Amino acid sequence: MTKISKVTLAVIISLIVLNLQAQIQKQPNELSVEGYPEITFKEKTHNFGTIKEGEVVETIFEFTNTGGVPLIVSKIKASCGCTVPSGWSKEPIQAGETSTFSVKFDSKNKPHQQSKTIVVHSNTKKGIDYVKIQLLVTPDPDMEAIRVEKAKQRKEHYRMQKEKAATAQHLSDKNKEIKKSGLEQTDKVDERIALEKDRKKAIEAIESLGEAAYVIGEVKTGDKGVELC
Q1: N vs C: which end of the chain shows fewer Cβ within 10 Å?
Q2: CATH code for the domain of 135
Q3: Of all residues in the chain, what percent carry a pLDDT higher than 70?
Q4: Are residues 54 and 110 in the same domain?
Q5: Does residue 6 lie in a domain region?
């Protein structure tokens, strides 16, 4: 082999090596762009405007696979049971193709301003995408009256529970104080009667609390009922 031929061969080999290195360096970048599908929504937030409570509304979200490989939507979930997505394709959506799914919202017991998030799970690089629905629900007068009344009842129930718990705690503390002072050993009839009345009041208050009685540290419950320590 001549000297010129050896030089030519060396140049050719060098060019081949450089070309291979360039291809290897280029592959990660190509994968980052074309190795995943991508969802592009025509509309990411849909506003229904104003509706009356009790109405059921529905919209369709349209999206396109703008990535380089097939898109697979595995599931679509909503943030609330009143919002139901459905109708998405279980088949791969090819690059450039468009698909849809629907979202239905039931406004029963959902008055006033509403905003619900729908989560789309797929094989995109992020794995999840989000769309939203928004609307204003005009309350049904009858349903609103019922809700207001129930809210009042809950508030009153909570107030009474706090009051009973405070009474039981006070009587329990008083009982400990009396024991500590030794009045239980006294022969003063009036004081003994007063003590027994306090005990009965405490037991009635605590029993009316049910499970709430467990929050009072000085109360024990057992097979014989509730008693003060």
Answers
A1: N
A2: 2.60.40.10
A3: 61
A4: yes
A5: no
Six-digit token string for 55: 């109405």
Domain span at 89: 39-139
What pLDDT does 162 receive? 84
Distance CA(167)–CA(21), nearest Å, equals 83
C-alpha dist (Å) from residue 66 to 28, 41, 69: 19, 10, 9
CB 60 within 8 Å of CB 105: no
Q: Where are the beta strands (DSSP E) in 3-53?
A: 39-41, 45-52
Residue located via tokens 């396109």: 64
**Which of these, 55, 79, 74, 72, lies nearest to 132 by C-alpha position?**
79
- At 61, list the tokens: 């979200």
Written as one letter, the residue type at 64 is T
Tokens at 163, concatenated: 């009051």
The first and second tokens of residue 168, run together, are 């039981």
Q: Which residues contact 90 (CB under 8 A, 6 or more apart)?
A: 73
Domain tally, the chain = 2
What is the pTM for the complete model shown? Answer: 0.56
Say how far apart CA 103 and CA 130 lie, in whole Å: 13
